[in-house]
Design goal:
44% of the residues lie in helices and 17% in strands. With 361 residues, the chain is α+β, with helices and mostly antiparallel strands. The longest helix has 17 residues, at 4-20. It starts with a helix and ends in a 5-residue tail after the last helix. Residues 8-197, 224-347 form the Class II Histidinyl-tRNA synthetase (HisRS)-like catalytic core domain.
């Protein structure tokens, strides 16, 4: 195992490269308020974070990433445009994979700039591409904004769209919802009986738990409203599947997505953004004809990214996690900015993996 001193030195070397690219170094606390992270991610974050309690400050979490506190800091005090870099430890529970490190170091680079988001995407990706070039990694890219635009364009209720948006980062749950909304999945007998009852609460057992009878009745009304909604059309489901199946070099992916947009015009603005990004990447020296694009990329580990996403992988070491990941997180700035927002994009490199794959990149 690489020693901590070597990892720390590599992290500082990477931070120095990011500073040379125009970033201001910043520090964040290792302990972060749990309520903020719970508001952002829901209770799911408890399965991945280390939680502790403080008599004065309430529940706290060991820092699971840097992006949230950096965004919070920028929205409170930052000027525009702004660019930051940082280096330090993050902490993630790995109960499903005990061989993965639960404490590791990241070095990151974040850009807040509303003038040209696609150029900012290209700036971040090209910098990571340059820094990691000696390791000869495979780069993967995607764009979660395309799938989000497709969901927004569905001919269904706003409540259903909201549920699909919430589960974009949980592919199995997302697929289950699509099957349910398309009337492909069988309604459980217990739910069918509940919805068919004139008064579902008439013979209910004594009330226990935290929900009131009013809240339970409201939930039943929501289920009835959903059951009465028209199913998603087979054509719309097929178009969603076509988007999710796109896996090509970026130039060919763009053409495939343009073909899909003919039948699903809601995604056309997102496709235009992809085209501008590819132009900006080309201007930054990236060969987009050799750059992989996967429409589903980033849906399992990048919960706050809502646009461009990328990762760098060691193909000769499939046992390792990504050496670097990043992407666009405009919605996160809106959530933490209390109504204010600014387009933002960034990424992190794991210096320990850089060393394991052959020393300083």
């Amino acid at each position: 195992m690489t020693n901590r001193a070597a990892i720390r030195a590599e992290a500082m070397r990477l931070r120095g490269l990011f500073e040379a690219a125009g970033a201001e170094p910043v520090e964040t606390g290792i302990l972060q308020p749990a309520d903020l992270l719970l508001d952002l991610y829901g209770e799911d974050i408890r399965a991945r974070a280390y939680v502790t309690s403080d008599a004065l400050r309430g529940e706290q979490m060991l820092r699971p990433d840097f992006t949230v506190p950096v965004v919070q800091m920028h929205m409170a005090h930052g000027a525009e445009p702004a660019c930051y870099t940082y280096a330090g430890e993050v902490f993630r529970r790995q109960e499903d994979d005990p061989d993965r490190a639960n404490e590791y170091t990241q070095a990151g680079f974040e850009v807040f700039d509303r003038t040209n988001p696609e150029a900012a995407d290209a700036r971040v990706f090209a910098l990571f591409h340059q820094v990691l070039a000696p390791l000869k990694l495979r780069a993967a890219t995607g764009d979660i904004g395309i799938l989000m635009a497709a969901v927004e364009g569905l001919r269904t209720s706003e409540r259903r769209k909201a549920a699909l948006r919430r589960h974009i980062w949980r592919p199995k749950r997302f697929r289950a919802l699509i099957d349910r909304y398309a009337a492909r999945a069988r309604v459980p007998e217990s739910r069918a009986a509940l919805l068919a009852a004139t008064d579902p609460m008439a013979h209910a057992a004594p009330m226990i738990g935290l929900r009131s009878e009013t809240e339970i009745r409201q939930r039943i009304d929501i289920l009835r409203e959903d059951a009465a909604a028209a199913p998603l059309s087979e054509n719309e489901v097929a178009l969603l599947d076509a988007i999710l199946a796109v896996r090509e070099t970026s130039d060919n992916a763009l053409e495939q997505l343009r073909d899909i947009a003919v039948d699903m015009p809601a995604i056309a603005p997102a496709i235009d953004r992809l085209a501008r990004r590819l132009d900006a990447l080309g201007d930054a020296g990236i060969d987009v004809t050799a750059l992989d694009f996967e429409a589903s990329y980033g849906r399992t580990q990048m919960e706050y990214y809502d646009g461009f996403v990328f990762g760098f992988y060691a193909e000769r070491r499939p046992d390792l996690p990504p050496v670097a990941t990043g992407g666009r997180y405009d919605a996160l700035t809106r959530q933490l900015g209390r109504g204010r927002e600014i387009p933002a994009v960034g990424g992190v490199i794991r210096p320990g993996l850089v060393i394991d794959l052959g020393g300083a990149a």
